[in-house]
Q: What sequence folds into this?
């Protein structure tokens, strides 16, 4: 495999933690910067997701269909 | 030290043989590929389900 001979000159006990550490640190920094330099990511993590349509424009809904029925108390 | 250097296939400064070095590298590449696949999947889900790029 190409570049496999690097481990003849770099000790794997040094090179592999260095490689994995570089991946971890750089990916953490990218995501941390997204968290601190954008507005949408903190809002998303706080639970302020996109507003739903019902919040934007509430719609009046009828409690029930119109009816001609009249409640009558039972006769004794 | 003299005992370790008795193997003519070992290469210094690490003392690994060439097949050993290739094996280490094969595992590292495979791990990177698996990590990358999971990362791509995670970014796909983030793209679909979060406000990212919206």
A:
């Amino acid at each position: 495999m190409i570049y496999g001979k690097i481990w003849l000159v770099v000790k794997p006990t040094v090179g592999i933690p260095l490689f994995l550490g570089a991946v971890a640190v750089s990916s953490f920094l990218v995501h941390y910067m997204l968290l601190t330099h954008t507005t949408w990511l903190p809002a998303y993590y706080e639970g302020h997701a996109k507003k739903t349509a019902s919040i934007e424009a509430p719609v009046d809904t009828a409690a029930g269909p119109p009816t001609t029925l009249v409640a009558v108390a039972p006769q004794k | 030290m003299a005992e370790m250097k008795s193997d003519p296939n070992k290469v210094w400064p690490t003392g690994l043989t060439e097949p050993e070095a290739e094996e280490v590298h094969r595992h590292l590449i495979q791990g990177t590929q698996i990590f990358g696949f999971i990362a791509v999947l995670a970014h796909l889900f983030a793209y679909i389900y979060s406000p990212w790029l919206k």
Observations:
- The interface with chain A takes residues 11, 13-14, 16, 18, 20-22, 24-26, 28-29, 35, 50-52, 54 of chain B (CB under 8 Å).
